[in-house]
Design a protein that fits this description.
Blueprint (H helix, E strand, L loop, with lengths): L1 H40 L1 E14 L7 H6 L8 E9 L2 E7 L1 H6 L5 E7 L2 E8 L13 H16 L1
Parallel strand pairs: 3-5
Antiparallel strand pairs: 1-2, 1-4, 2-3, 4-5
Length: about 150
């Protein structure tokens, strides 16, 4: 009795693993294809960054066609949005997470754009591209607080 139940559970887990393996392969191929398309379409442009925020896709001000073509699972997630002046037009762009951390607000930046997606920063007018600030982990923050309080007490 117990052996049969264990065997059924084992078979179900095995089937789930096989399905996940093939689904993962398919998604990986789609991602590689999308990256190749973005690489082929990228252009260098000079933009004036007006504002940047992390916000939901529906609140971002992106065109309705972009929101409609977004998969259902990504519509509720928050994305790094950059409002910038590209030439004479003010546009809403989506930035890569690594790029978004480095983009300075209210300054002119030369970036690589693929459609409405900012993929890389080439240069910043009047300065250099700064490295993204590294987030401190929980343990490192606690260690710094503890060492700071120990220095004050002594």
């Amino acid at each position: 009795m117990f052996g049969k139940i264990l065997m059924v559970i084992l078979i179900i887990v095995l089937i789930a693993l096989v399905v996940l393996y093939f689904a993962g392969n398919r998604m990986q191929k789609k991602q590689i294809q999308a990256e190749q398309q973005m690489e082929a379409m990228k252009q260098t442009a000079s933009i004036l960054v007006i504002d940047k925020k992390i916000m939901k896709l529906k609140e971002s001000g992106l065109p309705e066609t972009v929101i409609n073509e977004t998969p259902w699972y990504a519509k509720r997630s928050k994305m790094p949005i950059v409002k910038a002046k590209v030439g004479p037009r003010i546009m809403v762009l989506v930035a890569d997470r690594a790029v978004w951390d480095v983009i300075p607000v209210k300054s002119e930046v030369k970036v690589e754009i693929s459609g409405i997606y900012i993929t890389a920063i080439k240069s910043v007018r009047g300065g250099s591209v700064k490295a993204a600030p590294r987030k401190q982990g929980f343990l490192l923050r606690m260690r710094n607080k503890l060492s700071g309080s120990l220095k004050k007490n002594s």
